[in-house]
Structures are given as C-alpha cells and as structure tokens.
User: Which sequence fits this backbone?
C-alpha cells in the first residue's frame, strides 16, 4: 500500500511539472533526408484553397502517413512552390525523429533555380544565428526533400533543401512561458535585455520586415514577432527572414514607407532603449562573431564565392560595431519612442 501511494505521488508531481514533450527533431543540426510522396501537382495548382491532401513521408527507412497543405501569406503570392504544413498522426510517430510532432511548418524552395535554393539556406542561417544568441528563439532543422508527385510532373528525385520550424506551442512550453496576444506592446512590458538583442539581431541580418504593432491582416501584435510572456515580462521571438538583406531574394523589396531603397540597406527599427542595455546586446552579438560567420561557412550547396558574399555582408555590421558609440547614436535617429 505504501509503495502504491509513493507511485501515485510521483505521478501527481509529474503532472504538476507539466507534460514533457519528446521532440528529437530539433535536437540535431545535421540535414535530415526525407521523401515526400503524394498529389503534389493538385496541392500546388490549387494552393489558394489550402486544402489538406494525404501524403506519405519516408525517413530513415520508416514511412509515415500525414496530411499536407500549402501555407503562407506573401509567399503564397510570390512563390511557384509555396511553403507547406505537415499534419502528422502523432501516435504513428513514436520511435522516429518526428516523435512528439503534430503540425510542422516546412519552408520550401520558393522558385526554380540555384538562386532560390540559396535563399532557403540563407534564411535558415538567419534562424540559426539567432539561436546562437538566445534560447528564446525558434529552433529549425534543415531537411533535404525528395518529392514524388503521384498526379503530375513535379517529381524531384534529386531533392532540394528546405527547413522545418519549431511549432509555436513547443517554443512556449520549452521556455515555460505563455503566449501573449495583445493589440500592441509598450517598452515597459518587454524584457529590456532580450528586446535589445532582437533589435540588434534584426539590424545584423538586415531585416526590416517586422514591427511592434499589429499588421492590418492580423488580430494581435506583432508583425513577424511572437510574444512570449516569461516571468511577467514579454519576450520577442522573431520569424520570417526571407525579405532580409542576408537573403536578398529577387522578390524582396523594402516597405515603401521606409527610407531605404534596398533590403540590403540596414535600418534600426527597435524601441528607443537605454544605451547601456543596447551596448550589452551589441557586445553579446559581437562576442559571437566567429560563430555567426561559421553558420554561413557551414551551409551546404552554396559555393565558397556565395558564402563569401554573405560573410562580407555580415562583416560590414561588425565593422560598424567596432565604434559602438557611433552605432548606438545612429540607432537613436530612427528608434521608436
């Protein structure tokens, strides 16, 4: 009887601590090879419908049934091959790299050609750079996908790179936080050090496609930012970097309301922040310079010349950061009060 009571107590304590999610998918940085088989032509030709279709995914010799649909906002318009969303049968994932997964976002190669394949990898690099700086970030997993089209001619047996993004629910659980949905945020409501790190990171990768206000098409704040409340403070978790300067996609153009002509022009878009807090965030980024550039050098598919261009782009940030006072003063000219 005592033994039974002890076991019951253990189960209760486990329940209080919350469920432990098995998510081996994002614990490894090595590219994952998968094959996706199904009605790809029907899915893409009717992409606006966003209707789920039955597919088979093969990974490590195991075949998994899932449903797939198109997703995205701007990429739905500009991409001939839009991003996808996987919907797994969770009980069938046990014992595979997808164990614990339910719905997953896949960033695909938007258009045909080498340049578009580079774009995917460079956007993946932006996510990886931010995870180097903080755990308050979306984890990603690089995949090499071979497509088998069962009702058309979109087969791609040689495969192409894409990447999977950690689901928002898993992000919040991992951070032991809560999703915060509000119409707008104030400077006082944010974790100051974490927010400053986001401002500096966005400037580093040349991303202006984000804001701390609600977009017209959204129900809550913020544009390309997820708000996660941790210990009574809101944290900014950025996503979607296809319009960033580090990617420089052919379809990328800055918002006409901004005072820049190219997405490769950097523009500080954060709140006006205490100089010491900004300096601390800047120091943190600069201290990881070698690791940040290493993300680029470690990318597959890109030639050394392609990698050197991206390293040069990031290098201009670090050159500017060598005079921290001047950089922070320049931020104060465009910061949001």
Assistant:
């Amino acid at each position: 009887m005592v033994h039974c009571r002890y076991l019951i107590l253990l189960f209760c304590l486990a329940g209080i601590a919350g469920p432990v999610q098995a998510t081996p998918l994002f614990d490894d940085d090595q590219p994952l090879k998968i094959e996706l088989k199904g009605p790809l032509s029907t899915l893409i030709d009717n992409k606006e419908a966003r209707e789920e279709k039955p597919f088979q995914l093969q990974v490590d010799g195991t075949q998994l049934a899932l449903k797939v649909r198109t997703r995205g906002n701007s990429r739905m318009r500009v991409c001939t091959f839009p991003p996808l969303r996987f919907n797994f049968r969770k009980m069938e994932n046990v014992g595979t790299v997808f164990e614990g997964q339910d719905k997953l976002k896949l960033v695909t190669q938007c258009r045909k050609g080498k340049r578009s394949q580079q774009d995917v990898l460079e956007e993946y690099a932006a996510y990886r750079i931010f995870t180097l700086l903080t755990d308050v970030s979306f984890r990603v997993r690089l995949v090499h996908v071979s497509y088998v089209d069962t009702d058309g001619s979109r087969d791609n047996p040689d495969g192409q790179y894409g990447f999977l993004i950690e689901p928002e629910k898993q992000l919040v659980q991992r951070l032991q936080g809560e999703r915060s949905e509000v119409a707008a945020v104030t400077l006082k409501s944010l974790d100051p050090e974490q927010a400053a790190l986001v401002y500096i990171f966005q400037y580093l990768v040349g991303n202006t496609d984000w804001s701390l206000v609600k977009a017209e098409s959204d129900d809550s704040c913020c544009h390309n930012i997820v708000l996660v409340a941790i210990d009574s403070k809101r944290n900014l978790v950025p996503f979607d970097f296809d319009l960033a300067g580090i990617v420089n996609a052919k379809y990328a153009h800055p918002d006409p309301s901004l005072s820049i002509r190219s997405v490769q022009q950097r523009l500080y878009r954060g709140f006006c922040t205490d100089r010491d807090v900004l300096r601390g965030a800047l120091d943190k980024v600069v201290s990881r310079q070698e690791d940040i550039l290493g993300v680029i050098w470690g990318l597959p598919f890109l030639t050394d010349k392609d990698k050197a261009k991206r390293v040069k782009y990031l290098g201009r940030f670090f050159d500017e950061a060598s005079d921290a006072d001047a950089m922070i003063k320049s931020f104060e000219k465009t910061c949001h009060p």
Q: What stands out?
A: The chain has two domains: 21-169, 176-331. The radius of gyration is 21 Å.
